[in-house]
Amino acid sequence: MGDWPVGLSTGCFYNTSIFDCLEQIRDAGFGLVEICSFPAHLDYRDPTAVERAAQLLRELSLEPYSFHAPFAEHIEITALDPAQRQHATQEILRAAEAAAILGVRYFVIHPGPEKGGLPDHQRFERMANAASVLNEISRRCREMGIALVLENMLPHLFSGHVRDLLWLLGALETTDVGVCLDTGHAFLSGDLHRVAHKLSGHLWMVHASDNNGHFDDHLPPGEGSVPWAQVLAQLSRIGFSGALILEIAGNPDIRGTLERAQRSRLYLRQLRHHPHNSHAKA
């Protein structure tokens, strides 16, 4: 039975400069990374810094698998105000240009606002706004040789359920937009037991994190309550061929964080080969 690559999101060091942690990530045995767009980590608006990061990735023989688009309340692609929507589009396109310089495969985006409680009567208009913006972003990504990937969000947010992602995929002009399954989000929304089957054919990568069913704790897989044996079995059944990117909580203790990530990677690999040992913990 083959292994899926297990990489690490540099978001676990989002308050540390990317130039101060990439070598330690490599030395911990991770060859695949997702790049975090938090400005304190890597300012995607600074072409010189992005070029430096790209050079360092090459020097360390690290593969920049994906780049996580910036997300904040003011980056709102569903906004009813056209000016606000245009600002969000331009900010994300700027980040996509940085992703292209880094040479990533996938550009991962949260396809909705970072706030809940939006009125139900606005839902269809906001979904249509998101589709329009995502069409523009997808076209630009294709021109730059990277692929757009939509992430399922927390259940109280827009695009927090699989049905929302499927609607957006159906509304887009292109068929070359994929999905990143966030296991922590799907576990909290109650979708996890069926999500891979529903997204079969669209699922290109996985953000792997754990929690105990109450908060989006971003624990390393194996430290929470996510049924990982079932998750891996689902991925296997649909013929998933992407990477699992560990997206774990930030911590100033780089060494300790990397040790937990290493244990989690080993746990997932052992579970992949011995799925009946599902009670083991990382």
Could you say how many structural domains there are in total?
Answer: 1
- Contiguous low-pLDDT stretches (5 residues minimum) are none
Radius of gyration: 18 Å
Largest sheet: 8 strands, parallel, barrel
* N-to-C span: 21 Å
The strands making up the biggest β-sheet line up spatially as: 1-2-3-4-5-6-7-8
CATH second-level architecture: Alpha-Beta Barrel
Helix content: 40-55%
What fraction of residues sit in β-strands? 5-15%
Q: Please count the helical segments.
A: 9
What is the CATH T-level topology? Answer: TIM Barrel
- Summarize the helix and strand pattern as letters: EHEHEHEHEHEHHEHEH
- Please identify the top-level CATH class: Alpha Beta
> What's the β-strand tally?
8
Average of the residue pLDDT scores: 91
Question: Structural class from helices and strands?
Answer: alpha/beta
Task: State the fourth-level CATH superfamily.
Answer: Divalent-metal-dependent TIM barrel enzymes
> What is the overall silhouette?
globular
Quickly describe the structure.
This protein is an alpha/beta fold and 282 residues long. 40% of the residues lie in helices and 13% in strands. It has helices spanning 22-27, 47-59, 82-102, 123-144, 162-171, 183-189, 195-198, 228-237, 254-273; strands spanning 6-9, 32-35, 63-68, 106-109, 147-151, 178-182, 203-208, 244-246.
